[in-house]
Amino acid sequence: MNIRQLKYFLDLAKTLNFTRTAENFFISQTAVTQQIRKLEETINVKLFTRTKQYVELTPAGHSFFFDVQEIMQKLEKAIDRAKAASLGVKGNLSVGFFIGFSQTEYLHFLKKFREKFSGVDLHLECQTVTNLYQGLLNRKYDLVFNIKFDVENNNFIEYKELEQYRLCAVLPPDHSLANAVSLRRSQLENEQFILNEFKGKPHDGTKFMMEDYFRAGFVPKIVMQTNDTQTILMMVYVGMGITIVPEFWASLSKQILKLAFVPLEGDNEKISLVAAWNKQNANPALANVIRLLNK
Asked: Over the stretch 144-178, which tens digit does the pLDDT of each residue have?
């Protein structure tokens, strides 16, 4: 039994005329007869009563007709969904993002993608910077929005740099440097720091973070490290220390916590936001989101 035989059967069940069914499929009447006979032999059921004067469905044929019609409708829908998935307009897209991504303007990009490709189910997850890159390698995520570090030489990860953000020293409002227009990192040498924790494999960001302090000529006095930037900002507010974060945290924290965000001087005092993906990922929905990013 094959799909072609089922299509012939459905048409013949409606026309009750071998000649007309043959014309509908641009084949000979003999071919229709042979295919219907093979179908009946396969399921071991007589579907039609045939005489020289008429053709009609048997009771078994009537039952088979309604079931096959439902099956064919489901099959057509399945084929349509498969075609849509192959084009990336349906399917699934797993997106990971770092804590703080919602403070950037690129959250609007996900909304734009969702509106353009409404048939794609987005699965969103917030994770640490290091876990996001690991998630790309083990195919947990199709796409991640992350801080750029240690990815340039990875043969499996491709990325697009989206934006650069100035790093800022975050200080309590009553700190002696809170009203400065800008600061050199070296001016913070005697401060106690609450910092983000970037440990992880294969992308350990701790050494990259520390290099910034080494270039400034000192080793920071770290009193606490955590993956949660919001917690760090609250710790700064209550006076436990200071921190350094990208400027996109400023708007929310200035409004609620009244913290001072003072830009750091120097070309290296910036971080890059990237969209990254695994080069070997063939998800068509990923291809669509990459095209949208490049517009």
From this structure: 999 887 777 788 999 999 999 999 999 999 999 99
CA–CA distance, 1 with 252 (Å, rounded to integer): 65
The pair of three-digit structure tokens given for residue 244, joined into one six-digit string: 């350094």
Contact of 177 with 169, CB cutoff 8 Å: yes
What gap in Å lies between CA 256 and CA 234, rounded to an integer? 10
pTM beyond cutoff 0.90: no
Over the stretch 52-69, which tens digit does the pLDDT of each residue have? Answer: 788 999 999 889 988 898
**DSSP line for the chain:** --HHHHHHHHHHHHH--HHHHHHHTTS-HHHHHHHHHHHHHHHT---EEE-SS-EEE-HHHHHHHHHHHHHHHHHHHHHHHHHHHHTTSSEEEEEEEETTGGGSTTHHHHHHHHHHTTTEEEEEEEE-HHHHHHHHHTTS-SEEEEE--S-TT-SSEEEEEEEEEEEEEEE-TTSTTTT-S-B-GGGGTTSEEEEE----SS---HHHHHHHHHHTTS--EEEEEES-HHHHHHHHHTTS-BEEEEGGGHHHHHHHT--EEEEBPSTTSEEEEEEEEETT---HHHHHHHHHHT-
Backbone angles phi, psi at 272, to 5 degrees: -110, 135
For CA atoms 104, 249, 227, 157, the dihedral sign is: positive
| Type of residue numbered 214 | F
